[in-house]
Amino acid sequence: MQYNPANPLIVQGDKTILLEVDNPLHAEARDAIAPFAELEKSPEHIHTYRLSPLSLWNAAAAGLTAEEMVSRLETFSKFPLPTNLPADLRDMVGRYGRVKLQRVEGELRLIAADQPLIEELARQKGVREYLGQRIDPTSFAVDDLDRGVLKQGLIAVGYPAEDLAGYAQGAAMAVELREVAKSGAPFTVRDYQRGAVDTFHAGGDVKGGSGVIVLPCGAGKTIVGIAALCAIKTETLVLTTSTTSVEQWRREILDKTDLDESQVATYTGESKAIAPVTLATYQIVTYRPKKDGDFPHFGLFNSRDWGLIIYDEVHLLPAPVFRITADIQARRRLGLTATLVREDHREEDVFSLIGPKKYDVPWRVLESKGWIAEAQCHEIRLSLPPNLRMEYAIAEWRDKFRLASENPVKEDLIEQLLTRHDHPEDRVLIIGQYIKQLRRIADRFDIPLITGATTNNEREDLYARFRTGAVRKLVLSKVGNFAIDLPDANVMIQISGTFGSRQEEAQRLGRILRPKEAERPACFYSLITRDTREMDFAHHRQLFLTEQGYSYEILDESELSAQILQESKATG
Known about the structure:
Elements lengths: L8 E3 L4 E5 L5 H8 L4 E4 L4 E5 L2 H9 L4 H11 L8 H11 L3 E6 L2 E6 L2 H7 L12 E3 L2 E3 L5 H10 L5 E3 L26 H11 L8 E5 L6 H12 L3 E5 L2 H14 L7 E4 L9 E5 H4 L22 E4 L7 H9 L4 E6 L9 H8 L2 E4 L2 H6 L6 E8 L3 H9 L2 H9 L3 H12 L7 E4 L3 H11 L3 E2 L5 H13 L4 E4 L14 E4 L7 H9 L11 E8 L3 H15 L4 E5 H14 L2
Parallel strand pairs: 5-9, 10-15, 10-16, 11-13, 11-14, 12-13, 14-15, 17-22, 17-23, 18-20, 18-21, 19-20, 21-22
Antiparallel strand pairs: 1-2, 2-4, 3-4, 5-6, 6-8, 7-8
Helix pairs in contact: 2-4, 3-4, 6-12, 7-8, 16-21, 19-20
């Protein structure tokens, strides 16, 4: 193999990979390694990736071989690969599937590739207590109720099981996709959406039926879920983040399938109906009257013979839902998300209990094909006013982030950005974390404010008016992070966020990525106070955008003002 010093990768023996951002082959190399390497740091010139066990196992589950991974590293590496790395990578990738859960003569069994491995695993805490009677030198019986917790135990000791035990069929349900939506518009499932469904379903084979589909916000993950429901044709439970999302799913199911209203029910704080397709919120299923009490709505998981459970925004799955999901491994499970990153670091539980990543498409690929809008990302750095600098300097560590986030200079910058985006086709969302700050902005610019305290009826009315253009600007609290259907939004101004949350960055950017009829570009602004904790967290949030191939234009507040002034002069 000929190595080229002009290549952009430096692959190191500790399984880290350095990628030169300014190299002409940067984008090609990034796309080559992204399916099996995790991005850890993304400063200006050198990005750092790591070959982690979970990233390698997800790639293996999606069909990528160790040889293909090594070949991609060799293709873009400046220097010969460290001698240990190909062997280490092959060994780690090879661990996926060395133990399998299979059904033999109707009995669930854990089967290992060889006897020494099963002997080792049978002595591991977290595994041994879930193994039943020994069947032969390489297999144990397993109680069906322990299927989930055993998979959690196996991945914890470094041997993720390939689950080939199959699924309960569930109650049959006749359902078809419409060729013309109920709204009258032509409807077809896009090629990548169909590819995601086909990969998940696998023609009904045991290799399908559980896993996670990773697609950008705005790329139609809801359509993927609906198409999966129609492929499997069984009664289905859909769990999602909010009543707004529940209503969105309900509208789409009734519009895109031949199911009628009696067959699609909502199970939320306002309604407790159950039907062949039931849509529920994570909030209601994890509600309990007392902190240490039972979860009264867990019964929903067994209220009907579900053949499919869909977990929308699976990166936000609450911990109690993992518990119940461990008990229902015989039901098909589909996770939908824009990012596998979880702020609680429970990615291994998603892998074990929902399933491995089965399909993903890079955001920039869909952008290049016109399925999501082109995005321009800007970070605007501003200073604290002099009267707040001393207050920040002496503030308690935990208060510094809020002081930086609520910097009043941001309000003057918002005024300038609203001037820049005052075109009749522009639809602007201003989003932040702190309600007091959001109320000030809403009052100053006379823009409707939506928070968690806004009633669902008022919320839906404002969203509807935004969709029609009667309202062109909204101020949103964190409720705007999740599953709101505002396809015409093309400008997002982020004034504060949840510390360094990469998943939040994904959700917020996704709000403005639906393709626009007016073909106006999507503009994503983050307002960051320099020389504060907010900048530290902003660097972490940017990891997500770097993973997806987006770059930030970083501007000083004075540079932004100069740009806008120049634009206004140019337009007269």
